[in-house]
Amino acid sequence: MKNVLLLVPTETYRAQAFISAASHLGVSLTIASQEPFPMAHRMGDRAIVVSLDHPQEGLSQIKLANETSHFDAIVSIDDAGLKTAALASQELGLKHISTSTTDLAQNKIAMRQRLMECNVAQPIFQTYREGERLEEKLSTIGRFPLVIKPATLSGSIGVIRANSAQEVREAVPIVRAIQASHGCASEYPLLIEEYIHGTEYAVEAIVIGGELRILTIFDKPQPLHGPFFAETIYVTPTSLTKETADRLFEVLDSTRTALEIKTGPIHAEFRITGSGEIYFVELAARSIGGTCSKAVPLSGGTSIEEVILAEALGLHAPDLSFENQASGVYMIPVPRKGRLKEINGIDRAKAVRWVTGVDMTYSADTDVLPIPYDAKYLGFVFAKAPSARAVVRSLEEAVNRLEIEIS
What we know:
By secondary structure, the chain is an alpha+beta fold. It has helices at 15-25, 55-69, 82-92, 99-105, 108-117, 134-141, 165-181, 242-258, 304-313, 346-350, 388-400; strands at residues 3-7, 28-33, 47-49, 73-76, 125-128, 146-150, 160-162, 190-194, 199-208, 211-219, 233-236, 264-272, 278-284, 326-332, 338-344, 355-360, 366-368, 379-385, 403-406. Among the domains are: 3-103, Rossmann fold (3-Layer(aba) Sandwich), CATH 3.40.50; 124-194, Dna Ligase, domain 1; 328-407, Alpha-Beta Complex (Aldehyde Oxidoreductase, domain 3), CATH 3.90.1170.30.
């Protein structure tokens, strides 16, 4: 039986989804995390501890575990384990993306520079380091509003819109403080880029046999204007015309080719202006986060986790057919800093027509931080309906029925 090593965050929401996918494929799954994760006691020697913060150390630990477990593929479900997975896969002769690709995918400045060299449409940008002349950087971009971002964090952490030079000056120390709180050294540069006016879309895709396959394009019907960028609703099928969706595919294919992503999942973000121009915004060499993969409308009981495992193992890809209905998820942002006391109304939210599930991710008496200070969401509400509009209405009604108490 083939055996996949899955690298996960200690507090993962997705372990069970991958366990179910492995069972459906008839393969074994070993799960590795920084510390024993909540389900580890149920998995025995198929749960191991691997250092994801230090890829070389993690490589040594994986090589040792491979002596007895023999891994046929190594998959990281989030950004933290990407380089460790790439190093270990390369060392063991398994299918993998290169470490240079992981470095590009995990550094927004390096990614912007590579895509600029490859003529991919993206925001005009500058880097900014402590001690440099901020005014010169801003004049080079030459327009407002702007977006200030940490170079090496994801999930909208530290991402702030600024509408003037004064707002940029006010945002910089905030972004630096957020960087530091997430373990980034103070000398790490910031990315300053133009804000693209337009509608944002998310694309879930996978590279199979060297070819890009789109799993779905998600509309984001609730505008993301800033100053912070907490996402809420993803809904599919997209409202884009086939012609625009085809052009979006071409931009994504150019982007992943420039970054040399030759295998595995991709989660990407784009903005499309009122005049139809498509701008690349972000890309991660992994699948969608949290439990949002449930919103990808694959039919026949196939899950995106199953597709990912099959691709990593070189197995025949599961049938990528899609449900003939709309699907969506509402990611519930943390509204403010504080201590979560309780969330009431979950049963009322589940009772809304077309709602298929409610997953809450925090327990009571937990300290919570909103975006841009942290990337975690309070939970996820899912819906499926005959139309995207019905999905959006159901999701909004369900979330309105929740009563969130934060002190």
